[in-house]
Design a protein that fits this description.
By secondary structure, the protein is an all-beta fold. The protein has no helices and eleven strands.
Length: 123
Amino acid sequence: QFKFESSGGGSVQPGESLRLSCLVQDFPRGYSAVAWFRQAPGQAREPISCLDETDESTVYVDSVKGRFTISRDSGESTVYLQMNSLKRGDTDVYYCAVGRKGCEMSRPSYSYWGPGLQVTVSS
């Protein structure tokens, strides 16, 4: 049975790290992409990273490359987003989403959404 939960977030200072978690069990047929999006107040929800469970391929947007890492723990059925060297500009509400195979980096490609997770980076 499809199970989908996300957790994490919090407040940190610039340069510190946080990890977000997304538990996904028994993907719906045709679905295998797990992506993280983020959204600032009044702004569009934007994709930042994705992992496709079928081949563990990953995608990152340029703004997080080298700082964020998406990974999977198959034993825990969990996809993690490790966020290092956080900047004030990373302050947003983050969302985990499940979509069809292929890691399309666009919101309409994702059908299942977790709750917003607040990430605040400030000194």
